[in-house]
Write a structure and sequence with these properties.
The complex is a heterodimer of chains A (about 220) and B (about 250).
Chain A (H helix, E strand, L loop, with lengths): L6 E5 L5 H13 L2 E5 L5 H9 L3 E5 L9 H15 L3 E5 L10 H9 L3 E11 L2 E8 L2 E7 L3 E5 L15 E4 L9 H7 L5 E4 L5 E2 L2 H13 L2
Parallel strand pairs in A: 1-2, 1-4, 2-3, 3-9, 4-8, 5-8
Antiparallel strand pairs in A: 5-6, 6-7
Helix pairs in contact in A: 3-4
Chain B lengths: L1 H14 L4 E5 L2 H14 L2 E4 L2 E4 L5 E7 L4 E6 L7 E5 L27 E7 L11 E5 L5 H13 L3 E5 H5 L8 E2 L10 E5 L5 H4 L7 E6 L6 H4 L2 E4 L2 H12 L4
Parallel strand pairs in B: 1-6, 2-6, 8-9, 8-11, 9-10, 11-12, 12-13
Antiparallel strand pairs in B: 3-4, 4-5
Classes of the chains: A alpha/beta (about 220), B alpha/beta (about 250).
Chain lengths: ~220, ~250
């Protein structure tokens, strides 16, 4: 029997379905260290309650407004501190939902990546990953270390909750990342504004007519 | 995709440092693009809609936080390159009169640590390119879902379900749209009996025109939709289908 994989699971806030799938996949594979780069402990407490052995957060005011690249650099540095064979994260967060953090973490760690996994299973020191790809669903065999982003995950072991506290990693002291440089190079691009609107309410017959009319204009 | 094409793309980017890199929003493109963006230290936008601002600059925008917000980025704004993925077929084809320079770049082939064990057909693959997607939410029963299938077919589109509806057994996971499921990018997206949760709408690309049927006039979907019907799905869908078939 091969040794269990040391798994790092990266969690976003708010914890979305993909984050939770990554956590469930990780818990089925080996001891999990959950890592989050946000001030809110809720995702990490959730991970401990589900059976993660460690929970580490990087909390620093300079993380506010960072883009995928800045967050990924911070998470990758924390993953190195925790130690791992495998890094898992949700394919897309419940916030920006771009699917960018995982590949950027892989780049920061200089590791191979697989994105949008539907299932991750251990297989004699390797991993068997199912992913929806151009033109079909492929089953792949990969060898750690690597970064996998998870879309969904079927299995989850019922593990006892772990009564550990959330550990805090300081950005500069623990991770060796300078806040000024980080803010300068990885600020979120563009501006965010609430989307305001209200649907025009019509009858069912009108709605069908409009749909047909829109389609006929293509 | 990064495993096989990453080294080649990196070599090309070193030869011709891009101001903007565009890749298709396919599973392969979505795998490759953010990794390339991170390598460039670039700004990244997944599947934005494109427009031109008053001074001619390209404006990229996309919904965030389950379509509750919009992020806008103007092409003359960032001091770094921009990497985007664009939905295949979402824009009208264009043609130019200049001949493109084609550079052939020598690149190492990726030493992919990936072995393919099996490949199966994806029964929901048509959803990825469907121009119309009709999605059933929690407010749709099995009988009404059968009618929605016919409606989607009559409109030339595909039928889908929310993750919640899939978990209740209305259809398989391969037809589910949302976070933790499939992402679709149709021109028209008809959401029936779906409240419009952020998890659901995060699966719909920003360019889609959203139309809703829901019995709750206060459902969040009506804050996002262009137009809609306030009615129970079981009452509205037969009328929609009759009209779509050319009936009374």
């Amino acid at each position: 029997v091969s040794a269990a994989l040391r798994v790092v699971v990266l969690l976003a806030r708010p914890l979305g379905p993909c984050d939770d799938a990554a956590l469930r996949a990780g818990l089925a594979l080996g001891p999990v260290a959950a890592i989050s780069a946000c001030d809110d402990d809720a995702p990490l407490r959730h991970a401990l309650a589900r059976g993660a052995l460690r929970a580490l957060k990087i909390a620093d005011p300079s993380l506010e407004g960072l883009d995928y690249h800045g967050i990924a650099r911070v998470l990758a540095a924390a993953a190195r501190v925790a130690g791992f064979d495998l890094v898992l994260c949700g394919e897309r967060s419940a916030g920006e939902a771009q699917g960018a953090v995982g590949p950027a973490v892989a780049e920061a760690l200089n590791l191979p990546q697989l994105t949008a996994a539907l299932d991750v299973r251990a297989d004699d020191g390797a991993l068997v990953v199912e992913r929806r790809d151009d033109g079909g669903v492929r089953t792949l065999r990969v060898t750690p270390p690597l970064v996998i982003t998870v879309t969904r995950s079927p299995a989850s072991p019922a593990l006892p909750p772990v009564e550990a506290g959330v550990e805090t990693l300081a950005l500069d002291a623990a991770l060796g990342i300078g806040a000024t440089e980080l803010r300068h190079r990885a600020r979120c691009a563009g501006r965010v504004a609430p989307r305001a609107g209200r649907a025009e309410i019509v009858s069912a017959a009108d709605l069908a007519r409009r749909l047909l009319d829109e389609r006929s204009r293509w | 995709m990064h495993a096989t094409h990453g080294a080649g793309l990196t070599a090309a980017m070193e030869r011709v440092p891009p101001a903007m890199l565009v890749l298709a929003a396919t599973p392969g493109g979505r795998d490759l693009a953010p990794r390339a963006a991170a390598r460039l230290g670039a700004a990244f936008m997944a599947e934005p809609t494109l427009d031109f601002g008053p001074r001619g600059a390209l404006v990229l925008s996309r919904p965030t936080h389950g379509a509750r917000f919009t992020r806008r980025l103007t092409s003359d704004e960032p001091e770094r390159p921009i990497v985007v993925t664009l939905t295949p077929g979402a824009g009208a084809p264009s043609s130019g009169d200049d001949e493109a320079d084609v550079l052939v770049v020598d690149a190492p082939t990726g030493d992919a640590p990936v072995e393919e064990l099996a490949r199966m057909a994806d029964p929901g693959a048509a959803l990825e390119t469907a121009p119309i997607v009709v999605t059933a939410g929690a407010g749709v029963d099995a009988a009404t879902y059968a009618l929605l299938r016919e409606l989607a077919s009559a409109l030339g589109g595909e039928v889908a379900v929310t993750r919640g509806a899939a978990e209740r057994g209305l259809d398989g996971e391969h037809r589910a749209v949302g976070l933790g499921a499939r992402r679709v990018a149709p021109r028209l997206y008809l959401a029936v009996g779906a409240s419009g949760s952020p998890e659901h709408l995060a699966g719909v690309a920003g360019g889609a025109r959203i139309v809703a049927v829901n019995r709750d006039a206060k459902a969040p979907i009506f804050g996002i939709a262009a137009y809609g019907v306030v009615a129970d799905a079981a009452d509205a869908v037969p009328a929609l289908l009759a009209q779509a078939r050319g009936g009374p």
